[in-house]
Each structure stands twice: as C-alpha cells, then as structure tokens.
Amino acid sequence: MSIIKKATVLAVGLGLVTLSACGSSDSGGGDAGAGSKTVTLVSHDSWSVSKGVLAAFEKQSGYQVKVLEDGDAGQAVNKAILTKDNPQGDVFFGVDNTLLSRALDNGLFQSYEPKGSDLILPEYRVDPDKHRVTPIDTGDICVNYDKAYFSEHKLTPPSSFDDLIKPAYKNLLVTENASTSSPGLGFLLGTAARYGDDGWPDYWKKLKANGVKVVDGWEQAYNNEFSGSAGGKKAGADRPLVVSYASSPPAEVIYAKPKPTSAPTGVATGTCFRQVEYAGLLSNARNTEGGKALLDFLLTRTFQDDMPLNMFVYPVREGAQVPPEFVKYGPQAKDPETMDPAKIADNRDDWVKSWTSLVLK
Predict the structure, then answer these.
(1) pLDDT tens-place string over residues 330-353
(2) Nearest in space to 32 (alpha carbons), one of 66, 1, 71
(3) Which residues sit opposite 215 in a β-bridge?
(4) Residue 48 and residue 65: Cα distance in Å, rounded?
(5) Sign (positive/negative) of CA torsion 122, 327, 278, 179?
(6) What's the pLDDT score for residue 74?
(7) Which one of 48, 125, 138, 195 is CB 3.0 to 4.6 Å from 199, fit for a cystine?
(8) Burial of residue 319 (number of CB atoms within 10 Å: 0-12, 13-18, 19+)
C-alpha cells in the first residue's frame, strides 16, 4: 500500500527517480558509510510526506533523507532483492502482505524493532520474533467506478466480484498485471480468497471473456485508462471500472479544483482485499543508525497523522488521526477479503504463473 499517488498526477513512467530532501548533494545511503548524515529510503513511486514533517525529522535527528522511488511496489521489491548485497539505500518502504514472504525468504531485511512498535494495532503485527519488518499503513484494494458513466448509461455500478463477469459490464474493467503490480496481485488474491484454490481460475476465464483489460501498473490503469479519474479524463480514458483503492475517491475530491460536493468515483465494496504495507532496515545497509532513526520516525504520531492525506492510506498506530475526508468518501471496507500470509507464501508464485498463462496468453 501504497499505496496511491495523488489522483491529479498523470503517469510519470516506471524508471528510477531520485529525490533529494533539502537539496542534499550527497550520493545517498548506497554510497555512504555508517558515519554518514544521509539516510536513503528506497520505495515505490507512491511515497509522499509533507515537507515540514520531513524537515522536522531531519532537524531533530541530524540526518538528511534521500528517497529513491523505483516504480510500482512489485517492481521495487524485485529490484531490492536483486540488489540486496549492494543495496541502493538503508530502509525499504512499501513491501506489502502480498509480497512479504518473498522479501523475507530472500533475506532482504535485518532485525530491528523501532520505538513505538508496541503502539501498532495488534491486527497488523507480523514477524514478532525477528522484527525484520514493521507495519506502517493499511488500505483496501477495490474496484472503483466512474459515477458519471453509470449514471449516463442508466446502469447500476457493480458491487461484487460476481457482478464483474456479467454481460452488462463487458469491456469496462481495467486491472493491473498481477506479476508486476501490487494492486494487481491484491486483486488476484482477493478472487482466490473469494472463490477458493480451485474456483479462482474459472472466475478469471469468465473475467477475460468479459473483456477485462490488463496493464502493467497502477499509474497507467488509474491515470491513463480509468475514465473516472482526473488524469483519465485528460487522457480520454474509456474504462469506467478500475482496480484501485477504497481511498481513491477522497483523493479525487481533495485535489479537484474546484472541489466537488461529492466524490466523482465510488467503490464496489464487495471486491475489496485488505493490504498492509511494511518497512524494514535493509540487510546490507551502510547507514544502519540512520536507517533505525528513520524507521522510528515512520511510527511517530507526527508521521502517522501526516500520512493519510499524502499517500491515501490508513495509519496503523493506535490513536493516529483519520482525516474526515476518509470517513466521508473512503471508509475502510467493513468485510474485505483477507488471506493468511503463510497461504500467500505457499501459493503466490504458482497462482501468478497460472494467472499469467490464463489471462495474458
């Protein structure tokens, strides 16, 4: 989770983007030693934090933060694994419950229990013995719909997985590639949780026959293909259904000018899968002390309160504030699909392989 970029931003591509906070010219955590005053965070391209909040951390800690954004979550995790012996940075943020076992099995992280870990809501805690990762945020992957399209066509929006395979919704849905995209994988796991180990392939056969479109990542799906988003409108998108997040509608309200009185998009609440994002200290981080300080910061009330309106996710710390816009336009799903991390670990790669053969070939 991310999990979501601001809805007004058009797709920026999936190449490596380097951002330097406060104008630092340091080469980053990948080149800095233990005594460096630069700490490098590696993440997917939905990382965001208020400048003032980050500046306060830098002033208090004495570290400058450099961020390396590396595409969709799935791509970022895969690259981090490939470069684990000589990592790009010190901390990785953005591995979620759909990919967690891959990161842990490949030894991506070293043990560290950040300050404030005891305040994480119990339902999000994992790896209690080794503390290799720390929960940072949560959100729901769900199908979003373009309200205007369904109103104009006098068609009731879908509300469940079952609805999506009905003829009325033929050629309307765009989703992300389950092998390269975190929300795409989450949507696949949601169908596996809903229909079972034996039933999900048949469901996807029907979804394919009903004209589902698959693209590489969230940016392309939401901002280029989805007719309900601000970016999609500019791009002339023609798909009124997209796999995104329950928190996407608040983004469409908050960043619209002028602001609408209601969200232009809605959520099919019967299609949601609960996602949790984690951060961890990279195994071969050069600036481990800076990495630890940064992980401590990610669990502070300051960061947890700031996070929802920057990355459009929910905090995981007890007592953290949830913006009123979330309550009104993007509440968490009441009964999302979930799956035990162990089951994801045992089946994910085989399911993705089968999904690829079934849907993309």
Answers:
(1) 888 999 999 988 899 999 999 999
(2) 66
(3) 176
(4) 12
(5) positive
(6) 80
(7) 195
(8) exposed
Greater pLDDT, 5 or 70:
70
> What's 337's DSSP letter?
B
Token pair, residue 28, equals 């980053």
pLDDT 10s digits, 29-45 = 444 555 689 999 999 88
How high is the pLDDT of residue 73?
80
Environment class of residue 233 by beta-carbon count within 10 Å: exposed (0-12), middle (13-18) or buried (19+)? middle
CA dihedral in degrees (266, 268, 271, 272; nearest 10)? 40
Can you tell me whether residue 11 is helix, strand or coil? coil
Q: Are 23 and 231 in contact (CB under 8 A)?
A: no
Tokens of 246: 């329950």
The pair of structure tokens assigned to 311 is 């990355």
Compute the C-alpha angle 313/290/74, nearest 5°. Answer: 40
Considering only CA atoms, give the Rg of the chain. 20
Check residue 17 and give its pLDDT: 30
Contact 112, 281 (CB under 8 A): yes
Query: Which residue in 296, 286, 265 sits closest to 89, CA to CA?
Result: 286
> What's the CA gap between 219 and 40, in Å, rounded?
24
List the one residue out of 116, 110, 34, 36 whose CA is nearest residue 288.
34
User: Which range is least confidently modeled, 55-59, 195-199, 325-329?
Assistant: 325-329
